[in-house]
């Protein structure tokens, strides 16, 4: 379990330990990506994929929903595509909201993109180590079995409002983000 | 990688409590407000739909209470926690989240008398049926399990008799039958025992006692261990079924390993309403900062007093697991090697009358119905906390007529021993 943040002197190697991600690894990904293709986007506001898409849009990410069943429709104001290959322009991160088995072929679709995505992120409860190895062999950063909303909330401090154990200690002030007082930034001093 | 787990003392001071984002206040501010302004209409909708983290209304969540929640979650090693109005409210919301009318749960009969009343009487109104087991006999829990059993409940150190419960043995039974194992950790606190390390799935606290520690605030806490997978388990519809209150959201799926704590908040606390006052949360947070220091002194003092009383001519027995001769000493060595807590009972040779006299003769010990204060406390359970139980239940719960319970404070132990000596001489 990770709790306090200490500097990490070891440069990240290409193969991650997928049982225990350093906070800096996750934060680095969430701070660097801009365009996120969300595979398995849902029109149902009660589904986690819808909630995560809305949250990421509100945090300024350009989220592109992928779902062949509703291709061509609009979802949260964004055009839905039927596959990764149909998305015009580069994708920084592919977020996989499908089961662990389906994550294999989706990863391969992502590896066929030009340019390659920088990150492949498999949602909480989704893990496919073979697919992860194929992606990492091409220099792509992989996160598995994590939710980007939870990780953003944890690293920014927002999740603490819900009594969740963020596993972060700090004597530095969290940084407000956007208007109002109910959004926090990833750019908090460390 | 190099992220290291901070120690218990550090967590007791820092977990959950960064400086205030708006003002930089270093101590946790008391957010004494009912409600919170939304950033905009869409933000309000996101909050009500559980789609964003944030604050709406202090019955459901409050930033001061949230610091307390994260603090106890970190100290217990859980995924999340929920602060509520009292320890009883904590138990109520846990069972409300797990049980449907007609369901059963198995509980140790060695419990705080208030919990025994709650289970035997109030819960019957909801159709929640308790089956009693013997904390000294883990097999009795397995024998009481039926297809309707939805939870197992014990105290880690049972009030008032200093019973140390073999958590690992009962956890193994709970795991075998895929039933959540709930541990009331009030008497031990995570400083002495960390039930999640022994197989508990959910922890409840009366924060009124040692966590707050100064006898000034009623409060309760629920901690989610994140270890029980409720998703897809039809026996727990609050977590596994689409919730009409939230547009069909499945809480156990959406919130993963802290879904139980969220369900207690957004279904239990929201609808049943036993919210903790932010002011009480503030006092409990302050108390927790010194929990490690206090619990060690409480335990050290209690051992010194128990050793003294065990030699006293007017006392027939002392039940304190810290004593080498105690029947629970081996379990205490296993589960709480730092100390066996502050609370214990002893029997007076003079019986009921001697108990009444002792209580009135004491000068430093306060006669009242609480435990876990900085001050030393005394009570005669048979006539107070356990009076509503039958004689048989009293004896089973370790609260017979000759029994006196002490909650040893953090004063100088010599003064406590002197006070007991003079009161016993006069009794």
Mean pLDDT of chain A: 91
Question: Quick one: overall form of chain A?
Answer: globular
Task: Give the structural class of chain A.
Answer: alpha/beta
Could you give the count of β-strands of chain A? 7
CATH architecture of the largest domain in chain B: 3-Layer(aba) Sandwich
CATH class of the domain at 23-147 in chain A: Alpha Beta
Catalogue the unreliable spans of chain A.
6-13
| CATH fourth-tier homologous superfamily of the domain at 23-147 in chain A | NAD(P)-binding Rossmann-like Domain
Biggest sheet of chain B: strands, sense, closure?
7 strands, mixed
What Rg of chain B do the Cα atoms give?
22 Å
Domains of chain B, number: 2
Structural class of chain B: alpha/beta
How far from one another are the termini of chain A?
19 Å
Shape of chain B: globular
Cα-atom Rg of chain A, whole angstroms? 16 Å
Modified residues (N6-(pyridoxal phosphate)lysine) (chain B): 209
GO molecular function (chain B): cysteine synthase activity; O-acetylhomoserine aminocarboxypropyltransferase activity; pyridoxal phosphate binding
Pfam family, one (chain B): Cys_Met_Meta_PP
Organism (chain B): Microvirga alba
Structure, described:
The complex is a heterodimer of chains A (190) and B (427). Chain A is α/β, with parallel strands linked by helices. Chain A has helices spanning 23-32, 48-58, 103-111, 129-137, 148-156; strands at residues 35-39, 62-66, 74-75, 78-79, 93-96, 119-122, 141-143. Chain A has a domain at 23-147: NAD(P)-binding Rossmann-like Domain (Rossmann fold). Chain A has a five-stranded parallel β-sheet, with helices on both faces. Chain A has a two-stranded antiparallel sheet with strand order 3-4. In chain A, α4 (129-137) links the parallel β6 (119-122) and β7 (141-143). In chain A, α1 (23-32) packs across α5 and α3 runs parallel beside α4 (129-137). Chain A is globular and about 45 Å long. Chain B folds into two domains: 8-287, Type I PLP-dependent aspartate aminotransferase-like (Major domain) (Aspartate Aminotransferase, domain 2, 3-Layer(aba) Sandwich), CATH 3.40.640; 291-426, Aspartate Aminotransferase, domain 1 (Alpha-Beta Complex), CATH 3.90.1150. Chain B has 17 helices and 14 strands. The relative contact order of chain B is 0.13. Chain B is of the alpha/beta class. At the A-B interface, α2 of A face α1, α2, α3, β1 and α11 of B. Chain B: It comes from Microvirga alba. Chain B: The modification N6-(pyridoxal phosphate)lysine is found at residue 209. Chain B: Its EC number is 2.5.1.49.
């Amino acid at each position: 379990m990770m709790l306090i943040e200490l500097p990490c002197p070891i440069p990240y190697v290409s193969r991650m330990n997928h049982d225990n991600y350093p906070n800096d690894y996750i934060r680095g990904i969430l701070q660097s990506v801009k365009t996120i293709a969300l595979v398995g986007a849902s029109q149902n506001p009660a589904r986690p994929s819808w909630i995560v898409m809305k949250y990421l849009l509100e945090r300024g990410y350009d989220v592109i929903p992928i779902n062949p069943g509703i291709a061509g429709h609009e979802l949260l104001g964004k055009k839905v595509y039927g596959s990764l290959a149909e998305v015009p322009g580069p994708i920084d991160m592919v977020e996989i909201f499908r089961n662990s088995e389906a994550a294999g072929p989706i990863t391969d679709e992502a590896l066929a993109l030009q340019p390659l995505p920088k990150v492949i992120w498999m949602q909480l409860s989704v893990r496919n180590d073979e697919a992860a190895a194929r992606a990492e062999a091409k220099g792509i950063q992989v996160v598995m079995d994590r939710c980007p909303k939870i990780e953003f909330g944890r690293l920014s401090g927002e999740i603490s409002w819900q009594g969740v154990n963020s596993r972060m200690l700090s004597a530095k002030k969290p940084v407000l983000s956007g208007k109002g007082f109910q959004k926090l930034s990833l750019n908090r001093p460390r | 990688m190099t992220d290291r787990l901070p120690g218990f003392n550090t967590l007791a001071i820092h977990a959950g409590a960064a400086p205030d984002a708006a003002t930089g206040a270093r101590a946790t501010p008391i957010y004494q407000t009912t409600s919170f302004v939304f950033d905009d209409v869409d933000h309000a909708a996101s909050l009500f739909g559980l789609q964003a983290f944030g604050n709406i209304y202090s019955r459901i969540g409050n930033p001061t209470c949230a610091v307390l929640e994260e603090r106890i979650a970190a100290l217990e090693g859980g995924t999340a926690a929920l602060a509520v109005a009292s320890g009883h409210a904590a138990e109520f919301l846990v069972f409300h989240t797990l049980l449907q009318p007609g369901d059963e749960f198995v509980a140790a009969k060695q419990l705080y008398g208030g919990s025994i009343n709650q289970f035997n009487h109030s819960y019957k109104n909801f159709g929640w049926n308790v089956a009693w087991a013997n904390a000294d006999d883990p097999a009795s829990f397995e024998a009481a399990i039926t297809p309707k059993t939805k939870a197992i409940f014990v105290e880690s150190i049972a009030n008032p008799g200093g019973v140390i419960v073999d958590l690992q043995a009962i956890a193994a039974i709970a795991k075998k039958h895929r039933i959540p194992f709930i541990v009331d950790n009030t008497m031990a606190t995570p400083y002495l025992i960390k039930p999640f390390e022994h197989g508990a799935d959910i922890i409840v606290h009366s924060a009124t006692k040692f966590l707050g520690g100064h006898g000034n605030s009623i409060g309760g806490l629920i901690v989610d261990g994140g270890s029980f997978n409720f998703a897809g388990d039809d026996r727990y519809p609050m977590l596994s079924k689409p919730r009409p209150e939230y547009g069909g959201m499945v809480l156990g799926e959406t919130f993963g390993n802290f879904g139980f704590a969220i369900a207690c908040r957004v279904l239990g606390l929201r609808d049943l309403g036993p919210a903790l006052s932010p002011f009480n949360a503030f006092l409990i947070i302050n108390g927790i900062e010194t929990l490690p220091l206090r619990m060690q002194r409480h335990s050290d003092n209690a051992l010194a007093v128990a050793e003294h009383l065990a030699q006293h001519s007017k006392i027939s027995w002392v039940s304190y697991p810290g004593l080498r001769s105690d029947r629970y000493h081996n379990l205490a060595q296993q589960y709480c090697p730092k100390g066996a807590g502050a609370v214990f009972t002893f029997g007076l040779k003079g019986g009921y009358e001697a108990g009444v006299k002792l209580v009135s003769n004491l000068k430093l010990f306060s006669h009242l119905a609480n435990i876990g204060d900085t001050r030393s406390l005394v009570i005669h359970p048979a006539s107070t906390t356990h009076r509503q139980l039958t004689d048989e239940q009293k004896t089973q719960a370790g609260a017979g007529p000759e029994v006196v319970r002490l909650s040893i404070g953090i004063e100088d132990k010599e003064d406590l021993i002197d006070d007991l000596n003079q009161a016993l001489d006069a009794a």
